[in-house]
Amino acid sequence: MLRVMKTILVVDDERNIVELLRLYLEKEGYAVVSASDGEQALVLYERNDPDLVVLDLMLPRMDGFEVCRELRRRGDTPILMLTARSEDVDAIVGLELGADDYVTKPFNPRALVARVKAILRRTDVTAKGGRPIHVGDLKVDPRRREAFVGDRSLDLRAREFDLLAALARDPGVVLTRDALLENVWGTDFPGETRTVDVHVAELRKKLGSDGPQLETIRGVGYRLVPPPRNAVAAE
C-alpha cells in the first residue's frame, strides 16, 4: 500500500532545532518523529520505519557516526547528516559510513527542506529510463542504478551514482559545479558547491585507478576522462 504521508525521523539534542525542523517539515506535509539521543533514535527507527533520517553528529549516549553505522547495518533508509563543524573530514566520514548527504549548522531551514525533498524525490524513482552508458570499461546502468568497472561492482551511494551518471553522459566535457548541483541535487536545492567537491572526492576513490578518471578543472568544475584507447558507446 502506498504511504500517503512520508515520515521523517529528526535526531538532535537541541530542542529548538527539532521544533524548527518539525514546523517546516510538517508544513510541507511530512510526519515528524524526533529523538534526542542516539539510542532513542534506533528505537524510534524500528518503531516508525521512517522514509528519511535527519541525523545530528553530536549526540549524547551514542554519537551520530555510530548511529549512522547502525542504521546502515539495518537498511538503506536515506540519511541527511547535520554537523556543527565546518571541517570537510566530518562530512567525508559521514558519507563513508553511508550518509546520503550533509548540512552544516547553522542552516537555512528552507534549504534543508529542499535537500530532504530532493533526496526523497530521487529515492522514489525505482527505475529510470535510459540505456546503459559506457565509458571505456565503465558501465553505468540508470535503470538498474548499477555501475561497474569491468567486472568490479561500484558500491555507490545514491548521490554518488547520480553524480557519476551525469558526468558519464558527457565524457570529456567539463561540467561546472553549479551545473552539477542543478543536475544532481535539483533546481530547488540552494546548496554550496563544496558539497559537489566532497562527493567527487568519494566517487574518485571508488572509481579507482582501473576506471575512467575524474579530472579537476581548476576554478570551473569536473570532467570524466575516458581511457585513451576507448571511446563512449551505448547499447
Summarize the structure.
This protein is α/β, with parallel strands linked by helices. It has helices spanning 15-27, 38-48, 64-74, 88-97, 109-124, 158-168, 177-185, 194-207, and strands at residues 7-11, 31-35, 52-56, 79-83, 101-104, 133-135, 138-141, 146-149, 152-153, 175-176, 213-217, 221-225, 232-234. It has eight helices and 13 strands.
Based on CA atoms alone, the radius of gyration comes out at 18 Å
Order of helices and strands: EHEHEHEHEHEEEEHEHHEEE
End-to-end Cα distance? 35 Å
DSSP helix fraction: 40-55%
Individual helix count: 8
Shape: elongated
From the helix content, strand content and strand pairing, which structural class follows? alpha/beta
- Give me the side-by-side strand order of the main sheet: 2-1-3-4-5
How many β-strands, per DSSP? 13
CATH superfamily of the largest domain, by name, is: Response regulator
CATH architecture verdict of the largest domain: 3-Layer(aba) Sandwich
The whole-number mean of residue pLDDT values reads: 84
**Might you state the CATH topology name of the largest domain?**
Rossmann fold
Task: Show unreliable segments.
Answer: 230-235
Largest sheet: 5 strands, parallel
What is the strand content? 15-25%
CATH class of the largest domain: Alpha Beta
Tell me the count of domains.
2
